[in-house]
Fold:
Amino acid sequence: MENGKTPKAKKPIYKRIWFWIVVVIVVAVIGSTLGGGGKDKNKDSSDSKSTATSKSSSQAKVSSSSSEKAKSGWTQEIYDSITSATTGINGDGSISYSNGTPYADIEAKVGKPDTTSEASVGNQTTVVANWTSISWIKGETQSITVQYDKATGQIISKSKFNS
Structure:
């Protein structure tokens, strides 16, 4: 204590203006990096068809047609060729599937899935197979999921997500 005055306590860092300016800048940089900088992106529902279109000349160089193969080997034509099996109920109450695309055919065309999981109810086992492809250059993610009956190999359902 010099001259009878108490020393002034320093403000905590979160009460300083420069701290909040730095926080806003960091959040803006992270947001623009993760958000893709506000570029338009195409989104597909599970059974819709679309072709990527470009909004500017710089995007025209990286636009793709529906036949371009993703990392996992998927094309829009392969996805569209998948037929979900017809579900039937047998006399004993069990579920049967027919006229669906065999899972083995799809796996032969596009390769093994990135992840699989199984679920069993009674004597029926279904498998969910998922292929995911991420393009950091284009800022796009594609995920294709196929569910099939393990006993018959018939595809029960399919879904596709593009972002």
Q: What stands out?
A: Strands lie at 86-89, 95-98, 115-121, 124-135, 140-149, 155-162. The CA atoms of residues 36 and 136 lie 10 Å apart.
